[in-house]
User: Fold this.
Amino acid sequence: MEIKDNQLLRQFEIMTPDGLLVLEYAIQERKLFLTKLHHPEHLEIDICNEFIKTVLAFAEEKRFKVVPTHPKIAHFFRKNPIYKELLPPGIKL
Assistant:
């Protein structure tokens, strides 16, 4: 999955067959805040989940802790407890 890190707009982007999938972020003190997820209306959930997994792999590679502020991202963390190690101390979902 080829993700573009648009640093100017502070968002990760990928073009899907249904349209553009965007995950907005902010970086502060070695933490990656995932703030908004914009996706086409009829996007398959599997594509969205793979996109999030790829972004989390990027965060792990850069040794960032991840703070999911968007409800859909928080829901992803609840459904996939393997990624809870990326959460900063004190954050529970």
